[in-house]
Structures are given as C-alpha cells and as structure tokens.
Amino acid sequence: MYESIVGALPGVDIDSSTAIGIQVLAFEAGVLVVAALYGLWAGVVVGTAAVAVAAIGSALMLTYARRIRELDAPESYRRLLFGSNVEVVLGVLAFVAVVTHLFVYDPRVATDPLVTALLGDEPPVLATYLTLLVLWDVVYRIGTSWWAAVAAVWRAYTFEFDPARSRAFARADGLNLAFAAVQLVFVPFVLDRPVLLVVLLGHVLAVAAATALSVGLTLADARDATVSA
C-alpha cells in the first residue's frame, strides 16, 4: 500500500529515501506546530517516537519488499504477499480497534485516559486530526507485518528452495521481525496502560513466533536438500 501511494502521486517521481525523508519532516513539523499552537508539549515525545517508528517501518517494509522481489519468489507467493490487499483489511481492523480503545474503552475505565493526557480535556480539532493520521501511519503497519508473517509461513511450508535462496528468504523474514520489534519503542509510554501493553507485546510475540516458524521450515528444507544432494 505504501508503494502504491508514493507511486500514484501525479507528477511525483522520487526515490524511497526521499519519500521517507519528506514523511518524517512533514509529520515532525506537524507535531511541533500543534504542540506550539495548543501548548501540548506533553505529547511531543510520544509524537516524535511515533514519527520515528513510522519512518523506520517504511524503510524496513520497502527493503523487505525489494528483497522478496530480487529473490524471484514463486508467483503464487508474490500474489499472496503483494496483490491480495489483506494487509489493508488487517490494518483497518487494527486501527479501528485502537481508536475504539482510546476514545471509548479507556475513558470509561482509566482515571487518566491517554487521549486526555496527551491532548487535554477538550482535544483541539487539528491536534486530534494529526494524532489520528500519525496513529494510522503506525497502526496499519501492524496489519502489514501480520500478513507478511503469515504469507512467509505459507511460503516456507509450500515451497522448497536451494540452500542459498533459503538463507536469503530467512534473512528477509528477519526483516519483518525487526519491522514488528521497532514498535517496542512504545512500551515506555504504555507501561501504565495494561491493555495496550499486552496487545503491543502480543503483536510482537505473534510475529516473532510466525517468523521463527517460517525461518525454521525454510532452513530445514535447505538442510534436507543439502543432505539429499
């Protein structure tokens, strides 16, 4: 999805590094401007962390996609990973879940809801808009990481490759784990928010488990192929 957004802008032809740089500058400028306008300096640190996670996620995601394409992956796996748009559906579901938690569940059970702590008792419209925009940019990557992990397990179970390609696919799968682990940057901000903490850690552990399975199956096939040869 990220690739399609960058590539679809009319009259825009920039490389991925430039696109990520523009993304960082635009979002970080927005965070600082909103903080200055409304005095919401308490949210600058977490906002900057979110911008950094989004940027690092973009870089890892694009590197992962490039490596999979360079490995000349089986067409059915490529269609599953890049053409199904399942990651968009998963991203939307994750985003709706987070918004529901922040604006409905958390205010009912917490004495100091996270939205209030970051945006005040009466959140300004512009600050809320920017918060949701950055939040989407972070959360939809959860769906992307889930789908990449599931697709990798299917690939590892379905196909066998020579040892060199198997190791290359395993290294690519490791990028997806790094992609998920980057979001652990948010742990210090949700230590007193048990639901968000459990969901965040659960997300990373789930991707780690799926990645371990895909890497294990891939390397096991490589060892079997070597022994047979």
Radius of gyration: 20 Å
Q: What is the chain-wise order of helices and strands?
A: HHHHHHHHH
Shape: globular
Specify the oligomeric state: single chain
User: How many β-strand stretches?
Assistant: 0
Structural class: mainly alpha
Unreliable residue runs: none
Counted up, domains total 1
| N-end to C-end Cα span | 41 Å
- What's the tally of helices? 9
Helix content: over 70%
Task: Report the average pLDDT across residues.
Answer: 87
Strand content: under 5%
Characterize the largest beta sheet: strand count, sense, and whether it forms a barrel: none
Structure explained in plain terms:
By secondary structure, the protein is an all-alpha fold. Helices cover about 80% and strands about 0% of the residues. It has 9 helices and no strands. It has helices at about 1-10, 15-40, 45-70, 75-85, 85-110, 115-120, 125-160, 165-180, 195-229. α2 packs antiparallel against α3 and α2 packs antiparallel against α7. The longest helix is centred in the last third of the chain and has 35 residues, at about 195-229. The chain is globular and about 60 Å long. The mean pLDDT is about 85.
What are the key terms here?
about 230 residues; mainly alpha; 9 helices; globular; DUF7530; membrane; transmembrane; CAAX protease self-immunity; transmembrane helix
